[in-house]
Specification:
Blueprint: H1 15-35, H2 42-49, H3 53-60, H4 63-77, H5 87-103, H6 105-118, H7 122-149, H8 158-176, H9 182-197, H10 204-208
Length: 209
């Protein structure tokens, strides 16, 4: 569910406008990872990206506007879901993508900065919520396919299962300081899959029944 798989700095086609956006967003990500949200400055981002300050101010306007676009770009560039034919296989693929993202020194620091900012900046919080909505919606069909195969009960909340996979990994990132390795990712996937099969994520009346 994190920024999964795309290499920072990947240039997409689209001419000068797209190249400027890519440069500015890469610079913004670097600055966030190095300095945190509180010290993020549009003029500094423009300098890092080697573009005019006027361009950055005109297009993004505010730091929160720039971070919102950065999160949108990250969601757009994230790798599509993996379909292995089993719920555990799919959730493990998701967990390992999230783990690699959060264990990366740059990306882990970037997410810490954005999450910290989201606790006190409403627009940043909205952008972060949109980012995760996009990523959860990308992976939710894997759980629906498991329902269709009979692996998990009808009425399972597919979005909650996907969220349950990455939750322990973000907990490690933000609170415990424990090593964030593939073993942790695999445990998170195994736990979410087992809970889903047991009916832990049934919605509403289905869960109460």
């Amino acid at each position: 569910m994190g920024f999964e798989g795309a290499d920072p700095g990947t240039v997409r086609p689209g001419g000068r406008t797209a190249r400027v956006r890519e440069s500015v967003l890469r610079a913004a990500g670097d600055a966030l990872a190095e300095q945190g949200f509180a010290r993020l400055d549009l003029a500094d981002v423009a300098r890092r990206a080697e573009v005019g300050k006027t361009t950055v101010y005109r297009r993004w306007g505010t730091v929160t506007g720039l971070v919102a676009d950065l999160l949108l770009d990250m969601a757009e560039q994230s790798l599509p879901r993996t379909e292995t034919g089993s719920l555990l296989g799919d959730l493990t693929a998701n967990a390992r993508l999230v783990q690699r993202t959060l264990a990366d020194p740059r990306q882990g620091a970037l997410f810490k900065a954005v999450i910290a900012a989201a606790t006190c900046e409403a627009k940043t919080a909205e952008a972060l919520h949109r980012f995760y909505d996009i990523r959860v919606n990308e992976w939710a069909p894997c759980v629906q396919q498991a329902i269709d195969r009979g692996e998990v009960p009808e009425g399972t909340d597919v979005h909650e299962v996907v969220r349950a996979v990455s939750a322990p990994l973000y907990y490690r990132l933000l609170t415990s300081g424990d090593r964030l390795d593939e073993a942790a990712a695999d445990r998170a996937a195994t736990a979410a899959a087992a809970a889903a099969r047991a009916g832990a994520y049934l919605r509403g009346d289905a869960g109460r029944a």
